[in-house]
Amino acid sequence: MTKKLFIDPSEVRRRGVIELSNIPLNQYSKTMEEETNNFSKEDLVRIYRDMVIIREFESMLYTIKTTGWYGGISYNYPGPAHLSVGQEASAVGQAYLLDKDDFVFGSHRSHGEILAKGLSAMEKMDAEELIQIMEDYQDGAILDAVKSIHNESTDVRKLAVVFLLYGTLAEIFGRETGFQKGLGGSMHAFFTPFGIYPNNAIVGGSAAIALGAALFKKVNRKKGIVIANIGDGSLGCGVVWEALNMASMGQFRELWEGDYQGGVPIIFNFFNNHYG
């Protein structure tokens, strides 16, 4: 609640003109050589690997949806397939620096973001933590299923990659060994141990939910940031503008005290696939 707020009529009713500052657009101008120097060879290979994994995952779903088979295996999938083919670099790029303490909320088209965030988060964990997460989640049911089909490697990170892919795909297919036991499906999959929070089938719906999570982090001094991954079409939804307005309101800067002062830790990340 406001403690004290004096409004001077002579100021607020004074004649004037509102001038908006310029908004930078497409300002990135580094060369490939300049950017490459910021990464190791291993980093670049992993970034490419993550993009390839996402493309193949989405292409696999498309093939199953349209032909009923993949890799010689027949499967009938009557559910939705809102794919993100062509957006792999955007998903991997925004997830690259994020870890388990950073939360992402997505849309109906967020398979790629789920995988990108999971792959990034697990890269920053040690083997012991990864094993603990996989063993604890659903009492190890998903891990047991994964081990039954993937037992040729003792590399924990490789096992974790298969765990992520399996849990996501099983969820999309409505299987009990999915991350939400098949109850969430394609548009509501999530895995909180990796900082992947529920996606939302309502266009733009994640904007306000992500803002609430960011406000929670701010008030409780929690680590990390929150990202609302939504599409360009969501800019036609009122809830997105309401979230943008609340995230930027002056009270955070002017009325909150001490280290609470300042904005909320959120990024509204718009994937402009030109659908909207």
Kindly list the characteristics that best describe this protein.
two-stranded antiparallel sheet
The spatial strand order of the largest sheet comes to 3-4-5
Q: Could you report the average pLDDT, rounded to the nearest whole number?
A: 94
The percent range for strand residues is: 5-15%
From the alpha carbons, calculate the radius of gyration and give it in angstroms.
22 Å
Low-confidence stretches: none
Note the overall shape: elongated
Distance between the termini: 38 Å
What percent of residues adopt helix (DSSP H or I)? 40-55%
How many strand units?
A: 5
Q: Report the sheet with the most strands, covering strand number, pairing sense and barrel closure.
A: 3 strands, parallel
Topology as H/E string?
HHHEEHEHHHHHEHHE
Structural class: mainly alpha
What count of helical segments does DSSP give? 11
